[in-house]
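Q: Structure tokens for this one, please.
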Amino acid sequence: MSFEPVIGLEVHVHLKTASKLFCRCPVRYGTDPNHQVCPVCLALPGALPVLNRRAVELAVRMGLAVGGSVNPRSVFARKNYFYPDLPKGYQISQFEEPLVSGGAVPVALDGAEPREIRLTRIHMEEDAGKSVHGEWERADESHMDLNRAGVPLIEIVSEPEIRSSAEASAFLRSLRAILRYAGVSDADMEKGQMRCDVNLSLRREGSDTLGTRTETKNLNSFRSVEGAIAAEMARQAEVLDEGGEVVQATMLFDAERGTTHVMRIKENSDDYRYFPDPDLIPLDLDPEWIHEVRAALPELPESRRARFESELGLSAGDARTLTESRTLADFFEAASAAHGSARTVANWLVRDVASILKEREGSIEDSALEADAFAALLGLVDEARVTARSAREILEVLVEQGGDPEALVRERGLEAVSDAGVLESAADAVLAENPEMIERWRGGDKKVLNFLMGQVMRQTAGKADPAAVREILARKMES
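A: Here is the predicted structure, written as tokens:
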């Protein structure tokens, strides 16, 4: 029997602050274990939390960026459970009165109409520490790194409106772009700055009755989210096909085997014994301050995408690619302003620059390419001072180490051959070596021109202007 998935995501995001949520300990990545801790994040007796204003501002900014309603009053609560990496034995979070209600994230899949996935809420909480297994002297030992304990998080909870692993991945990519555009988080999944829990149930196709859901925890890549959804769908479908019942549980995903397995039988919210934290007063926000945060928001990905299409004439695909990263979109606009043709810049970015970056497994953020130098290089192509082939060679150098395109062209002897006498001579030599091609041309086989152009380009070491070579060859064969 056929089933369809009902999927909701809970996304935990580190806010881009200099210090933790309730103390002054720095937030840094890659430092020695347990070197960014204090009595507050170690939960020593008598230590009291003090709320980080910057963290609240970033959480509000995200709520506004997704069109949510920022609640003037929210309450911090204690979520009670015990794990080795949670020193207090409870987590400070928000429950009944979150910071943000509602909102939506735009999602676009190839071949499908763009739509929005609604959000239930965004609330603030602190992160727990990290369990490290078998990385020191003994493989059977576990250690606790509490540097991450107390790092400020927002938890973004979607409605159960996602219907496939591809849509879940698209949701997360869109969400990450908004987080980065708004300056809320770097959302680097490799550093644990963005982690995802997948709530999933199956129901019979055409049925409105929801099945029993499971929650797969701590997924830290788009691939693992897609893999976990596929694995859990297969597991639940097998249980239901055999006449069994899915048990509400917390699951873990084994990426190597492509399977999910039960970690523990799932608790409900009652099991956490939420109650307002007596050490923190309710968070009351001034509406004027919320307005100031809204006014400081930058142009967001969806708005920028639409503008690139309507004002600059880009295709939907190119506009989407160029707005995936705020840095790339800024680079594109700066280069377009310097060069004058947004379409030309977009073509080179989406095709050539993207290809070079992919080979280097890098991004525009960590390349040495500057917008003005890129625009200058395209200008040399427009003026036929370098060929497109030579420009790609220069482009690789600019991406790797930067520099002045014109100087690089001179240093490498890549100036285009535009002397009519040189090109005429090269064309005559190629035609003399390939008389049969002339007959084929006159017989209607126009494709031979590409072969002959290649031969001329070879003779000129790829420096000849292709348009000039094409015109010369065609004229000579016609006469």
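A few notes: The domain at 420-478 is CATH 1.10.10.410 (Arc Repressor Mutant, subunit A). The first helix runs from residue 53 to 65.
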